[in-house]
Amino acid sequence: MRTRTLSKVAACAALAACAAAAHAAEWSDAFIGFTYGTKFKEPGSDADVKKKVATLQYVGGYKYGVNFFAVDMLASDENNTANNSDRGAHEVYVTYSNTVSFGKVSGKPMKFGPIRDVGFQFGFDFNSKNDAFGAGLTKYIAGPKVEFDVPGLLTLGLLYYKENNNNSIAGTHVNFDAAPRLATVWSFDFNAGLPAVFKGWGTWTGEKGKDGFGGDTAAETWTEMGLLWDVGSAAGTPKTVYAGFGYQYIKNKFGNPSSLAGTKVSAPSLKAEYHF
Q1: 59-95: string of b/e by CB count within 10 Å (b at 16+)?
Q2: Which residues lie closer than 8 Å to 13 by C-beta, 6 or more apart?
Q3: Which residues contact 197 (CB under 8 A, 6 or more apart)?
Q4: Which residues are CB-contacts of 102 (< 8 A; sequence separation ≥ 6)?
Q5: Is 156 exposed, middle or buried (0-12, 13-18, 19+ CB in 10 A)?
Q6: Residue 201, beta-bridge partner list
Q7: What is the number of structural domains in the chain?
Q8: Domain limits at 10?
Q9: 220-230 and 241-251 as β-strands: parallel, antiparallel, unpaired?
Q10: CB-count burial class (<10 Å; 0-12, 13-18, 19+) for 214
Q11: If 0-12 CB within 10 Å is exposed, 13-18 middle and 19+ buried, where does residue 190 land?
Q12: Count of CB atoms within 10 A of residue 18's CB?
């Protein structure tokens, strides 16, 4: 009950922040997306997991920077079951971040060399999952970020990362050590028969102390990307309907060492988005 209540509170708070940001936005993009893949993994098992992922995402620029908000709703197949059930597990994952632009705040361009702008990012992630592990994650991130002067979007952040989580198998709450994180986001438009976009994000997160079983954690690499065509442009409605392929690569998923099965992921997927 407590986990469900916290989930509702966090989701409502993030939605409220998103709505306020949208009202004051100088520019914005929002979409509903769907991802399907058959090669996902979960720590503790070598089995391939089929997942369906519904996504609601918003990004928008405002007077002092950029707001980002996303909700992923993930449904696994029977190779990742709900606790005490033969039904696939369900998960909700919420992300919110705000980047304050030093250039916008100061009113003076922060452009130098290959850098287009410098800012400070802060935000949180929240999840709840109903499998045997029973994850109930909250993570907080903050730190400086640079935006590179390229035709498109390319950022790099050096962030403080702090995670708290639940481990129902061990019957404990885990307060992980703070860790460094490198994070990048990119998006590049080009033409490939139709207008297309190659976009994604990646993180490297350092060791975060002991896990819920008392073992040492490992540095985690996680990246997700998509190559999507603007199929709506063929019907005279550009920048509305996108479809294409995605790919997820993870090493040491959730900070688990590579000696544990299911911690390395190489998962292609099909993706579609409707922008509004």
Answers
A1: bbbbeebbbbbbbbebebbebbbbeeeeebbebbbbb
A2: none
A3: 187, 188, 189, 190, 226, 227, 228, 230, 242
A4: 110, 117, 118, 119, 120
A5: middle
A6: 185, 224
A7: 1
A8: 2-275
A9: antiparallel
A10: exposed
A11: exposed
A12: 23
| pTM for the whole structure | 0.90
Within 13 Å, how many C-alpha atoms sit on residue 9's CB side?
A: 7
Alpha-carbon distance of 276 to 58, in angstroms, equals 10
Amino acid at 145: K
The CATH number of whichever domain residue 16 belongs to comes to 2.40.230.20
Per residue of the chain (276 residues), what is the pLDDT tens digit?
444 444 444 445 445 455 444 456 899 999 999 999 999 999 999 999 999 999 999 999 999 999 999 999 999 999 999 999 999 999 999 999 999 999 999 999 999 999 999 999 999 999 999 999 999 999 999 999 999 999 999 999 999 999 999 999 999 999 999 999 999 999 999 999 999 999 999 999 999 999 999 999 999 999 999 999 999 999 999 999 999 999 999 999 999 999 999 999 999 999 999 999
